[in-house]
Design brief:
The complex is a heterotrimer. Chain A is mainly α. Chain B is mainly alpha-helical. Classes of the chains: A mainly alpha, B mainly alpha, C alpha/beta.
Chain lengths: 265, 269, 255
């Protein structure tokens, strides 16, 4: 019986080589990192004990501390997050429009818009906060601007992607009637992008609530300031109060967002 | 419009009724703006003053000063080390934790507490976790690594649990029916379903850890953040600019690299 | 070796998923001849459960299932896996690994014979690879060998499923409603394939089906189930309308 020996390979040679290179680079990166990182082994093994010690100092939680300072600070944090998200829209919407290839066609405009969006995303809100504290001084203004500037990249990028995914049919129809640019935006693009828009803004607001809570550590207002002060004074029970407040607010924000999302769908 | 008598137009109800809630929500937003600006004491004058400072600051930031590049490199290396180690360890742990949290594989008394743990890991900002670790294990990279491991678990374990919950058991059943052993069943029926999503999560998380590793140093957990913070405190704004440029370049570089990695493993977007 | 080869011997098989509501209430039959054996009966009567008890995807509550002189109803671990590789299954919804290619799906039929290490490294023997390609040619899918399984049509996917089953070199094929998700023409093609492989390999194929006419056309023996019992067990010609009424209940669907 003649036998044809069939060949079968799961991956082509090129694929095998590239897969192996990725694995190799990955292992190299890991090994090099582990060799050069400076960790004192005693601290590593001591860690669980130290953590337990710290947690024990936080108990019982100082509840009386809450109405005095924490409450106002948490409200301030929420305001920073919300106002910051609103201010974001002022910059993010135009940038998204410029970056969307089905709104503005010029590649130069794309690159410029992209540059702003990418730089905004790459710098952490905490670093933005440092920058704005240096400019405007400590306080809420720095916090709001830090949140706003960081969120522009996030919202702008996702909004641009949502804009590019719409069906251009209705837009073309509107253009064909000779409608002015504003009408085309409002009646052609906006209705299609609206659910994505709200979803993105809610998503970012949720993240911003978390971010705003820590900005105070560098002086940009909110509960972070209270947290920082408590830690510098080693008042661990008050630290616990602030942490619990942050946790509660984050959970509530998440529940709020999930419920709004459910009602939107 | 041609052909329509004027009386006829008003006979039909307006097909575009004004939706009251649009106005209400617009009003709410404006009211909120007033309220928040008021309570927080933001005033225009301070803003304008600030703009003046901003001008001066930008002057001092440019041109960026790379002369202390050894310090920069050291901080950069440490950030990379933190990001790599915490990503690998975090993802590794997440595989197990995610499996334990999968409701279709595990009984409730296991999956519910594990899910709770994952939720806690997600709720706190990495900076807060970093502070806690710095206070307990001291300054340096260890705190940063532990922080980002927690952050990684909060994200990857959750997504991994969801991916496992979504797998089609039909494929698992078919491979079981061939007499394959447990590991082969996992390799052939579970892995193909989750692997490409896994690469997507892993690259995203590394990106996130890279960003965070440049930041947790601000509270002492090692990496470029520490260098940045000291530069701010010494008003070395041109060095600050150099560090910021480095951070942006690093993140851009990884964004580019991750698309390559995903293409190698042929993941659908 | 006994004079009559027993492919399968089922004795007193009972199964209940919920306490007090048995699905299979005592099934007895023996298979001594190769060829297609069709199992017919209304939905919910336990046809699928019966097949799954044979390859132990479901564990029987009582009774014995004897394949190659081994009682498999209690088997576990390595013995169970060896049982399963002898008993190949074709599924109603094909159950292919969608993200893998067609040829990989066929080759996965050999997993019961490979270690985990070999499976991970995809170390199939040359013989296996040859057999896989031959089977693909036999089911007419040579051109689709490297395509992803989810890019195929239903009928094509089922053919891959059959190739995978035959790849196991089984001593019995179980097919759980293999044609129920297919159009009539494709259903006939699938039954032709099953009949052909059963004949070539000289093994029985136990096939669940809804379509009585299709069963009568291809099966050498028909088992009719109703209410957890076997009501009819014999040649296809002898199935009268009365018997069908007893199995399925009601008349209006007849003719």
């Amino acid at each position: 019986m003649s036998q044809i020996n069939h060949q079968w390979q799961r991956f082509t040679l090129a694929q095998k080589l590239s897969r192996y290179s990725v694995y190799l680079l990955f292992v190299m990166a890991l090994v090099m990192s582990m060799r050069s990182v400076e960790i004192i082994p005693e601290f590593f093994f001591d860690a669980p004990e130290q953590m337990m010690d710290m947690f024990s100092r936080m108990w019982p939680v100082d509840v009386a501390f809450y109405p005095i300072t924490v409450h106002a600070a948490i409200i301030e944090t929420l305001n920073i997050a919300t106002l910051g998200t609103l201010v974001t829209l002022i910059f993010a919407i135009p940038l998204a429009l410029i970056n969307a290839s089905n709104v503005v066609a010029s590649p130069i405009a794309h690159w410029v818009a992209r540059f702003f969006l990418v730089s905004s995303r790459s710098v952490n809100s905490l670093v933005w906060a440092l920058l704005f504290v240096a400019i405007f001084g400590p306080g809420v203004l720095a916090g709001v601007l830090a949140i706003a500037f960081r969120s522009v990249g996030f919202v702008g990028k996702l909004l641009a992607e949502a804009l590019e995914e719409i069906d251009m049919g209705s837009v073309e129809a509107l253009r064909a009637t000779g409608a002015p640019w504003g009408a085309v935006m409002l009646k052609g693009y906006w209705p299609q992008v609206m659910p994505a828009f709200y979803s993105i803004v809610l998503f970012r607001w949720d993240i911003n609530v978390r971010e705003s809570a820590v900005l105070g550590l560098v002086g940009a207002g909110g509960i972070g300031v209270v947290l920082n002060d408590s830690m510098n004074l080693f008042e661990w029970q008050q630290v616990a109060t602030s942490l619990l407040a942050i946790f509660a607010v984050v959970i509530m924000a998440e529940i709020l967002v999930v419920n709004i999302r459910k009602r939107m769908i | 419009m041609a052909g329509l008598k004027p009386q006829q137009i008003s006979a039909h109800p307006n097909p575009f009724p004004k939706k009251p809630w649009h106005y209400v929500s617009a009003l709410l937003v404006i009211a909120y703006l007033f309220y928040s600006i008021g309570t927080m004491g933001l005033d225009w004058q301070r803003f304008i003053e600030g703009l003046g400072h901003a001008d001066k600051l930008l002057d001092r930031m440019f041109p960026p000063n790379f002369s202390r590049w050894e310090l920069l490199l050291e901080g950069l290396m440490e950030s990379l080390e933190i990001a790599v180690i915490s990503s690998v360890a975090g993802i590794f742990l997440s595989l197990f934790i995610g499996l334990l949290a999968a409701r279709n594989f595990m009984p409730n008394w296991v999956s519910v507490p594990v899910r709770g743990f994952i939720a806690i890991c997600r709720s706190f900002h990495p900076v807060i976790i970093a502070i806690l670790f710095v206070k307990s294990v001291g300054f340096g990279a260890l705190a940063g690594i532990l922080t980002l491991i927690i952050a990684t678990i909060g994200f990857i374990a959750k997504l991994f649990a969801e991916a496992i919950e979504e797998i089609s058991f039909k494929q698992v059943e078919a491979i079981q029916a061939t007499g394959a052993n447990f590991i082969s069943v996992i390799l052939f029926s579970v892995m193909p379903q989750v692997f490409s999503r896994f690469i997507g999560f892993a690259t995203y998380q590394f990106d996130s850890n890279l960003r965070n590793s440049t930041m947790v140093g601000i509270v002492g957990a090692g990496g470029l953040g520490g260098t940045l913070f000291s530069a701010f405190q010494r008003f070395d704004y041109d060095f600050v600019a150099a560090i910021l440029i480095t951070i942006i370049a690093l993140i851009l570089f990884w964004e580019f690299l991750s698309t390559l990695v995903r293409r190698v493993f042929q993941c659908r977007k | 070796m006994s004079a009559i080869q027993r492919y399968l011997d089922v004795k007193g098989l009972k199964k209940q998923y919920i306490e007090g509501t048995p699905i299979l209430k005592g099934i007895d039959f023996t298979i001594e001849q190769p060829g297609i054996i069709a199992i017919i009966g209304p939905s919910g009567t336990g046809k699928s459960t019966l097949l799954r008890c044979i390859n132990r995807l479901v564990s029987p509550s009582d009774g014995q299932i004897i394949i190659n002189n081994q009682d498999t109803s209690k088997a576990s671990g390595k013995a169970l896996r060896q049982l399963r590789r002898q008993v190949a299954m074709v599924f109603q919804e094909y159950n292919l690994v969608e993200r893998l290619s067609v040829i990989e799906n066929v080759l996965s039929g050999r997993l019961g014979y490979m270690s985990s290490w070999q499976a991970w490294r995809r170390k199939y023997t040359q013989q296996d690879i040859n057999t896989a390609f031959e089977l693909l040619a036999a089911v007419g899918l040579t051109d689709q060998a490297n395509k992803r399984a989810d890019s195929l049509s239903g009928g094509q996917r089922q053919r891959v499923g059959i190739a995978r089953a035959v790849m196991q070199d089984p001593s019995i094929i179980l097919a759980d409603e293999p044609t129920s998700s297919l159009d009539p023409k494709t259903a006939v093609e699938i039954m032709v394939l099953l009949a052909r492989f059963a004949r070539e390999k000289n093994i029985p194929a136990l096939v669940n089906m809804h379509d009585v006419k299709l069963a009568q056309r291809f099966a050498t023996r028909i088992i009719g189930m109703s209410n957890g019992h076997i009501i009819y067990d014999g040649p296809p010609q002898n199935i009268s309308d009365d018997i069908l009424k007893e199995i399925y209940g009601g008349e209006s669907w007849l003719d």
